[in-house]
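Saturday, quiet lab. Running sequence design on the structure tokens for the scaffold JK sent over.
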């Protein structure tokens, strides 16, 4: 290793040291190479003073002398790059040289810091310029930032800007490098993927240096071949890293990245500003970071989260998706996560049967505990559809308190999507309509699969009319993909639909709702001509939950079922065909993964589309369809002899909740539904939802008493179940009353039976 020594006459002397004799204290320079750098040859033949790069060497020597250091190192002139063997050894040793330096001086020629501004106050604008410095985008400066314990930053005037410690927050935000790495934590604590991500946006002049500049970051050595190209160099680097990592036992928290539980789109459009804001807000040192994405339904919050997860997946050890539409859906998401984590980390999650009701909370707690383990700080949790948050002063019993379901330790990253602007958990980012016409046209282009939209005046008029609403643009595109109509035809249909909507639904006050409803109605009219079964299915969907509707659930034969429903559920092929028509028009999201059930996969519709099926397609409420929905859900409740009943119970809960809502709003008549209410009561009781179970048992009891009298067997079974329920709730007085009523009726029946026997 050659070091420079500042002479008394202001000149420099190069001194060569062999391994073991290298001084323990020396300074080292970090900089960007520019024009006229001083080379080893320039320094040895005395031509260095006339070059522009000489000033940097002079700066480094003077700063080292001020810090009491006799020696300093500058890469431009301390290595003889004409000697291939020496260059090879130097590059493989460079991380160590920076690590062992007493001081590292970062010279930033593109950052200036005036001491006093015109108002006489310290000028802080240099911080913004500092964050944009090219130094942060160069490949070699990554190790020069991480390796030394002491790093000082200097402006082009040679003025101290701050240290790695004092500027830590800005450095972390700009580079996405955790503070622990900057503070000297062993780099082996960070995964290969994470370390590679630190260098992802950095550039090098020689393409092979993209790999060679990372040798020290991964603590490996390799032969330099400056003609092999970047890809081959990176492949060889990965091979060396794999060799080095074999046999090392490091705590690993990685979970395979998967989007199987969310509906992804092929081409995500625009939102670069929002993606940048999310990335900046979640960048840090591993401590808790949270972002709340709020905006209108159908504005693209979920797709934005998906786009962020896909773009930055290498920054995280695990990306975990949860549906927080309601508490039941959220718990079921935790069950899926517990099984996913336990598959890849068998000793981490110990829940023998997470689907069983008694183990639901155990599944939630086990995932929370795993996410709270020391060093497990690089996960990302996405809580999607948090549209009914528990808020101060609001007493909605169905609202969800997300804080109960967050990991306990203050670490990791969180994204929450919601329609509510009142969620205050992290940095709030409002997702607005697309403001750029080109972005709207791109959605139409991608979904409709039509070329030349950018120059089509009718396409531009349609995009302008749809007002930057991604869901409306996607619906229009899906319709155009399924038909041969022109953009001008669609625009005419849209205006006609808008006019009809003003007459039929005057209560729709928002422009956005009218826009979405109009596009859906156009699609619905076209579907009606192609497959009437599809339109009837969509109308029926209003009486079920919007998520996970599957074939067998609708296959129950009721004597009063309409003929079209029998035709729809005659076989699974025909049912799937009806769903496919809806999916092709952008109204149904076909399941990408099947439920863990013996029955078929379920399909879903967007919450906004579901609202339209309720308020527009079923403007005149159909009590017969509501009754059928209740009977179908109740008939699907598993019996005592069914194996793994909890799997089906969990799947039915959201549809049972829809039934309960219809009962509470008098949208379904109780007549002849006593058996069905009793079954729903059993479902709720088995799932520990005792309040909901009590309501259903009470409805069943009223129905049985009205139909069969107070002492019929069905009536008394329900009375007994109510007694058990009250006992589990701790309502012992009410439980005793139910038990006494059942016992008295049973005794009377026994006496009557004995008298009848005696008389005969």
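Result came back. Writing it out in full:
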């Amino acid at each position: 290793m050659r070091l420079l020594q500042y002479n008394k006459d202001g000149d420099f002397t190069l001194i060569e040291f062999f391994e073991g004799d290298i001084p323990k204290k020396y300074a080292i320079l970090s900089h960007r190479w520019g024009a006229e750098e001083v080379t080893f040859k320039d320094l040895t033949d005395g031509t260095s003073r006339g070059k522009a790069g000489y000033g940097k060497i002079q700066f480094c020597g003077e700063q080292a002398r001020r810090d009491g250091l006799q020696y300093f190192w500058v890469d431009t002139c301390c290595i003889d790059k004409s000697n291939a063997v020496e260059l090879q050894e130097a590059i493989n040793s460079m991380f160590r040289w920076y690590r062992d330096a007493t001081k590292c001086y970062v010279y930033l020629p593109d950052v200036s810091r005036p001491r006093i501004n015109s108002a006489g106050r310290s000028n802080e604008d240099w911080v913004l310029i500092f964050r944009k410095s090219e130094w942060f985008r160069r490949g070699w400066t990554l190790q020069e930032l991480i390796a030394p314990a002491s790093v000082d930053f200097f402006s082009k005037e040679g003025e101290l800007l701050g240290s790695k410690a004092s500027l830590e927050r800005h450095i972390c935000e700009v580079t996405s490098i955790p503070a622990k790495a900057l503070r000297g934590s062993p780099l082996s604590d960070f995964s290969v993927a994470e370390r590679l991500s630190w260098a992802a946006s950095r550039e090098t002049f020689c393409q092979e240096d993209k790999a060679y500049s990372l040798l020290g970051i991964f603590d490996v050595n390799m032969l330099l071949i400056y003609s092999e190209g970047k890809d081959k160099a990176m492949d060889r680097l990965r091979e060396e890293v794999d060799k080095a990592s074999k046999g090392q036992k490091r705590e690993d928290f990685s979970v395979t990245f998967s989007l199987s539980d969310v509906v992804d789109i092929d081409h995500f459009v625009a939102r670069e500003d929002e993606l940048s804001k999310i990335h900046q807000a979640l960048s840090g040192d591993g401590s808790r970071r949270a972002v709340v994405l709020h905006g209108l339904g159908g504005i693209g919050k979920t797709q934005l989260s998906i786009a962020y997860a896909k773009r930055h997946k290498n920054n995280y050890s695990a990306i975990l998706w949860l549906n927080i539409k309601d508490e039941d859906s959220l718990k079921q998401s935790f069950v899926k996560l517990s099984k996913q984590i336990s598959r890849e980390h068998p000793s981490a999650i110990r829940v023998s049967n997470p689907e069983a009701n008694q183990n639901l909370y155990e599944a939630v707690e086990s995932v929370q505990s795993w996410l709270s383990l020391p060093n497990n700080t690089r996960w990302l949790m996405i809580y999607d559809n948090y549209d009914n948050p528990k808020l101060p002063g609001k007493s909605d019993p169905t609202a969800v308190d997300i804080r109960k379901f967050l990991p306990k330790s203050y670490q990791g990253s969180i994204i929450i999507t919601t329609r509510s602007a009142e969620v205050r958990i992290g940095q709030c980012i409002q997702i607005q309509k697309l403001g750029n016409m080109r972005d709207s046209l791109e959605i139409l282009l991608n979904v409709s699969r039509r070329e030349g939209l950018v120059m089509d005046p009718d396409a531009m008029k349609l995009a302008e009319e749809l007002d930057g609403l991604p869901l409306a643009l996607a619906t229009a595109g899906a319709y155009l993909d399924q038909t041969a109509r022109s953009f001008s035809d669609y625009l005419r249909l849209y205006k006609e639909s808008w006019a009809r909507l003003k007459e039929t639904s005057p209560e729709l006050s928002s422009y956005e709702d009218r826009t979405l409803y109009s596009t859906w109605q156009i699609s619905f009219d076209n579907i009606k001509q192609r497959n009437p079964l599809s339109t009837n299915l969509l109308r029926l969907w209003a009486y079920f939950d919007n998520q996970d509707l599957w074939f067998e659930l609708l296959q129950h034969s009721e004597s009063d079922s309409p003929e079209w429903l029998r035709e729809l559920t005659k076989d699974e092929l025909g049912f799937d065909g009806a769903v496919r028509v809806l999916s092709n028009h952008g109204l149904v999201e076909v399941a990408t993964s099947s439920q863990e059930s013996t029955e078929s996969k379920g399909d879903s519709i967007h919450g906004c589309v579901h609202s339209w099926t309720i308020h527009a397609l079923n403007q005149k409420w159909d009590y017969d369809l509501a009754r059928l929905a209740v009977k179908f859900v109740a008939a699907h409740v598993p019996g005592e002899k069914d194996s793994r009943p909890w799997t089906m119970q969990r799947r039915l809960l959201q549809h049972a909740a829809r039934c309960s809502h219809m009962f509470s709003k008098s949208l379904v008549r109780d007549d002849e539904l006593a058996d069905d209410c009793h079954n729903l009561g059993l479902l709720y009781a088995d799932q520990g939802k005792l309040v909901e179970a009590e309501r259903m048992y009470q409805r069943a009891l009223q129905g049985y008493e009205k139909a069969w009298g107070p002492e019929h067997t069905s009536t008394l079974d329900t009375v007994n179940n109510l007694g058990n329920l009250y006992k589990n709730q701790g309502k012992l007085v009410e439980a005793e009353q139910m038990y006494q009523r059942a016992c008295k009726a049973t005794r009377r029946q026994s006496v009557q039976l004995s008298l009848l026997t005696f008389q005969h």
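Notes for JK: The first strand starts at residue 2 and ends at 6. The first helix runs from residue 40 to 45. Ask whether to fix the surface positions before the next round.
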